[in-house]
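Exam revision sheet. Question 4 asks you to relate a sequence to its structure. Input first:
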Amino acid sequence: MAQRWTANVIDAVQQRAAPGGQGVLRTSFRRNYADPNEVAAVILGGGTGTQLFPLTSTRATPAVPIGGCYRLIDIPMSNCFNSGINKIFVMTQFNSASLNRHIHRTYLGGGINFTDGSVEVLAATQMPGEAAGWFRGTADAVRKFIWVLEDYYKNKSIEHILILSGDQLYRMDYMELVQKHVDDNADITLSCAPVGERSRYAELHDFGSEILPRALHDHNVQAYVFTDYWEDIGTIRSFFDANMALCEQPPKFEFYDPKTPFFTSPRYLPPTKSDKCRIKEAIISHGCFLRECKIEHSIIGVRSRLNSGSELKNAMMMGADSYETEDEISRLMSEGKVPIGVGENTKISNCIIDMNARIGRDVVISNKEGVQEADRPEEGYYIRSGIVVIQKNATIKDGSCRAPPGRRDGFCDNLCAALIVVVVSRPGLKKRSGDGRRLKLEWLRLKVKARAGSISSK
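Answer key, structure tokens:
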């Protein structure tokens, strides 16, 4: 981490070194160091999350589990804390109950302790004179709560606003970005990740398409190129691949870093218990019961239960919200019902198993036919980009086989905009004797496309 403290504005001091005025004219500079106490973060947690459906059928995208025990919202939140930024707003809108609950338990209910900081949830609300209360995009989400940011500008000594996405996987020191923003004397700084010519990322209809093109012409807009690991969790395929990559040795991205840890809800669960299991390249979360099973290149979430003879390969099992006792399991099985977890002799591959799923005995879940798209909600599953997704709370009965007919033509998203973070400075920041005007951002209908790491406007 770079040193961070507040210094005076860049100052040039002229000095004659030799007596008689014949010395060399020297100029020294003092750098204006960015202060994390002058930065507030806004995390965008709204949106319908259609690209991650059915994982977002009952939750917001930032509340989707990742890596066994984390949620996507933990990524920007932890990056903020590790960067020394502890004034955070989370803007929510769609299916926000699970997200709100996780934020409260983790960051407001004693999970993470931080001094002189705050985490505030800003839910979508109808404003006076507006017909609808829903956010119409990321820029509109910030616009509707501009009065909150203005209040922070006036009363909390905030000079810069970080605008963060809630559906990306990366580790970043935001203060390095803010420092470049200050050094460049910029109005707006974008953190960008280089991508390929034909990327799968779709065109972004958010800040990129709302305000940036005009800013390119009228303001000092700078780019901060982020070259470390970054993954946009925007589709089922990218979500699945990002999770499977965590199992590789060595992984491209690592949650385990004692200097910059990732935080999540403290669950106070016991260690995982395994009995005669074969485990290879896997992440096993806490509180699991694994009995005579085989796990390969898979992620097992909290409170998961795998019974004798079950096999998981290239799979992500999100786990359960609560335990079922041995008596409850025996009663369910005696009634011909399926307990939470994976039953005996069940074989699962290339699959995402959402929370609280009940998968019976002698079940085969695979996609050997290469089906790309299929909707079977009445049977408890979907197929997206060739990945079988078992719905949350779904029940797959004993002896079922999940490899149905469906659309076999592949598909991909080819346009790309890789905007990670946006930094905006308040008006008048560079002119301390400013006119006292209210904060105004340029909310204009404009279009921007980012291809192969470059930005252009139309």
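Marking note for examiners. Residues 75 and 169 are 6 Å apart (CA to CA).
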